[in-house]
Design a protein that fits this description.
- By secondary structure, the chain is an all-alpha fold.
- It is built from five helices and no strands.
Length: 122
């Protein structure tokens, strides 16, 4: 991949990372994790039904896992840029088309390998 394209994707990934970290900080109320923020949140409220509280806690943990995975994907893409492996499918080694990288710059796989992975998970 050309240095110019890599630089563009690096800037885009860094902006995504900064936006995500800012969003997480505002949602969590600072530098605490979602689990800690959730515990504080539930400790301050009047007791709701147990089922409702468990449902809300489950949602908090699911969102935390999703946000952590998104941040990990961005960090991994930035690492691939540093090592010179960015834009190459981590599974088959083919070059990932620019259109795919523009749509999802953090993607580690070509569309064929991504489809294969998603079908295997089902």
């Amino acid at each position: 991949m050309s240095t110019r394209n890599t630089a563009t994707y690096k800037q885009q990934l860094q902006a995504q990372r900064a936006t995500l970290l800012s969003l997480l900080a505002s949602l969590r109320g600072g530098q605490v994790g979602r689990a800690e923020a959730s515990a504080a949140h539930f400790g301050e409220r009047e007791p709701d039904s147990r089922a409702q509280m468990e449902s809300e806690r489950g949602l908090e943990f699911t969102l935390d896992a999703r946000e952590s995975a998104e941040l990990d994907a961005i960090d991994a893409a930035l690492q691939r840029i540093e090592t010179g492996d960015y834009g190459v499918c981590t599974d088959c080694g083919t070059e990932i088309p620019d259109a795919r990288l523009q749509a999802a710059p953090e993607t580690p796989r070509c569309i064929v390998c991504q489809d294969r992975l998603e079908h295997a998970r089902r």
